[in-house]
Fold each of these.
Amino acid sequence: MATAESVDTVTTVQTASTLDLGAAPHMARPGQRARNLRKAGAYLILAALSLIILFPIWMTLVRALSAPLPYISAGQPVYPIQIEWDIFSRAFSRGDMGRHLMISAVMTLIIAGAQLATSILAAYAFAFLRFPLKNVIFAAFIATLMLPIEVTLIPNTETIRSLGWLNSFQGLTVPFLATAIGTFLIRQGFMGVHKDLRDAARLDGFGNLAFLWRVAIPVTKPVIASFAVISFLAAWNQYLWPRTITTENSMATVQIILRPLAAAAINEINIGTAAALIAALPILILLIIFQRQLVRGLTAGAVKG
C-alpha cells in the first residue's frame, strides 16, 4: 500500500511539473508581448523623429531638382516637378565650385589640424603638468569661449590687414589655429586616464612626449576623434570671417560663393539650392564615416564602469 501511494505521489508530482513547464511559456507571453510593444513604440518614435529631421533635406533636394517656375506654379509640393537632372553639373560649373571647394578644403584641413595639435598639447599641460597658477590660467583660457567672433572681428581684421594677409590662406587660418573648446574637451578626456597608467609609464622611463603619444592619446582616442570632427565642421561652415578678409573672388571659400548663386534670377533659383547641397556633401560624408567616433567621444565619461 505504502509503495503504491508513493508511486502515485511521484506520478502526481511529475504530472504537475510537466504541466507547470508546459504552462511557463504561456505565462511568459504577456511579458514578452509588452516588451515587443515597447520596442515597437520606440522604433515608431525614432522613425517619426527621423522623418522630421530628414524632411528639410528632402525638400531641399526637391527644390533643387524641380524646374523653378513650374514648381512654384504647382504650389511647391513635396515631390519634384519637371526634374532637371543636369542641375548639379550646371551649379558646379556656374559657380566654379571645384576651385572654391579646394580653397575651403585647404583652409579646413589647416585649421582642424592645427587646432587638434594645439588642443592636445595644451590639454596635456593642464591635465598632467604642475606649474604656478595653473587653475587660474585654465579658467582664463576657458573664459575666451564667452567671446563671440563679433567682439574680435574688427581687431583681428586690422591685424590681418596690417600684416598684408588679406586674400591669403594665412589670413583665413591663423586666427583659428587654437581653440579653448578643444583644450577643454581633450583635457576632460585626459583627466580620465587612470593614475596606475601614469605610474607605470614613469617606471618604464616614459617622458612627457612618450606618455602623451603612447598612453594618453590612445586611451582618449574617441574624444580626440570627436573634437576633430567638430573642428572640421566649424571650419568648413565659416562664413563671416572669410567674407571679411577676402576681397577677391579668387580666394573665396565655397560658403561665400553660394550667395551670388542663390541670388540668381527666379527661373534659376534651383542652381543656388543645388550648389548648397554640393557644399554640404563633404560634411555628410564625414559624419557618416565618423559617426561612431563622434557619439563615443561625446558620451565618454557619461557612464561609469
Amino acid sequence: MPQITAVSLVSAVLVSWNRRQQLRAALDSLFAQNYPELEVLVADNGSTDGTSEMLASDYAGRVTVLPMGRNVGPAVARNAAVAAARGTYLLFMDSDAVLLTPKAIANLVAQLEREARLAAVTGVIYLDRECRNVWLWGGKVDPWGYIDIARSRGPGHPVDVVSTCFSVARRESIVKAGGFDPFYFYMHEDTDLFLRIARMGYRFAVDRNVAVWHDMRPDGRKPTSLFDRARHFEYRRIYMMLKLYGLSGYLRSLPGTLGHYRRLLDDLGVPRLTRAQELYLFGVMPLAVLWLYAQAKAARQKRFLPPS
C-alpha cells in the first residue's frame, strides 16, 4: 500500500433524502476504513423516513448532521457541507454508495499527496456488490456535453470528470472553482464543477483497485418518465454548454446533438423517444438559449460556496 508521511484530515460529505437504510450502509462502509483522521458530514435534505433519528441514536458523536429542512438538492447541500468541512481533502459519496475496498481512503489520499495537480481520484463504481457490472470507470465528456457512456465504463482513456457518487478531491480545487452551481438541482452539478476544475489545469485519476457499489434503488429518487428525465437533462446540458463554452460553443454542438442522444439511449438500453418528443427536445428546447444565456453568462464568475 502506498504510504503517506502525514495523516491529512479527510472530510466525507454525504447528502441524503429518505434513504435511511442505504445511508446506514454508506456510513458503516466509511467507518470500516479505520482512516485515523476522518470527519463525516451528512446534509439531510428534509428526510421524513427516520433518517435524523437514526443518525442521532446510532452515530452520535461520529457524524456531523447538517439539517437542510427541505429538499434543496445535492448542489446546495454539498456546498453547505463543504463550507462546514475542515479537511484538506473532501470525500464525496452518495448516500446509496458503499465503499468495498479496505484502506481505499488512505490509498487515494496518498495519490493526491504525491501529485499537486491531481484534483480528485475515484475508484471503479459498480452496479452490484459482486463488482461484475461497471456503472462508471471515469467520466468521458464528448464535445456536445454528454457523458460518453460506453467509453466511461472502461479503461484506456483520459478522465475528463469524476463523479460525486464517490471521489476524494483536493479541497483547494473545489474552493477555487467556487463550488457546485445550484442551478442544476441534481444531474450535471458534478460534471459542471469538475470540468471547471479541469480548465484550471488540474487532472483526475481512477484507482482500478478501489471498488464502490452504487446501490441504485428507487429510494430517495423522485419517479419520472423517460421523457421528463430527457427534458430535464437537455435543459441543464444547454445551460452547461452556454456557461462553459459560450454561445458559439453551444451553437457548434447543435449538429451532433440528435444523433448522439439516440446513441446515448441505446447505450442505456432504453426505448427511443417518439418523433414528437424528439421534436420538442431538439427543436423547441434549443430555444431555451434565449432565456438561459444571460443566466449562464453571469454564473461564469460566480462563487456558490457559503462563507466557511
